[in-house]
Structure to design on (163 residues):
């Protein structure tokens, strides 16, 4: 990256810090996790109680059904919660882009995003799962709901339009 593009990236990251994005995302994830745990256990209890008969009190069936349903509901609600957290993260990325544009300059921010757009596939050719959290990966279709970053093209377009 050129120095101007680096300034855009630094402006973006400083905007994340100024917006309190790390704290906000951590708190949001904690709240979502609490709801996942609460709802999965309440629903599992309600369903296992409704399904089991009164003469099943001594059998292990209601308890086993409750455990299985808790696991199933945990998985389902975690996936749904992940979509909520990812959507909020994408919103925060747009805000950090706008903040980076105001700190470093709109053209520098656009240039930095354009450089990323042109090179991120070249950088992402290694099999290094430990570094996955440091990479921008945009998924298409249904998997886009789990993406924490909006597509670079959309981010550039929003900055160009001044949104």
């Amino acid at each position: 990256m050129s120095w101007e593009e680096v300034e855009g990236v630094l402006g973006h990251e400083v905007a994340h810090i100024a917006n309190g994005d790390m704290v906000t995302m951590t708190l949001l994830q904690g709240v979502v996790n609490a709801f996942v745990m609460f709802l999965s256990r309440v629903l599992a209890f309600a369903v296992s109680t409704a399904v089991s008969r009164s003469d099943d009190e001594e059998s292990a069936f209601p308890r086993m059904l409750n455990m299985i349903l808790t696991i199933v509901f945990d998985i389902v609600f975690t996936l749904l919660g992940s979509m909520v957290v990812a959507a909020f993260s994408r919103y925060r990325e747009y805000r950090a882009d706008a903040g980076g544009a105001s700190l470093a300059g709109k053209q520098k921010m656009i240039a930095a995003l354009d450089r990323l757009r042109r090179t991120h596939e070249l950088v992402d050719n290694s099999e290094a799962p430990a570094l996955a959290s440091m990479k921008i990966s945009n998924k298409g279709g249904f998997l886009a709901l789990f993406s924490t970053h909006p597509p670079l093209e959309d981010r550039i377009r929003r900055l160009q339009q001044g949104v």
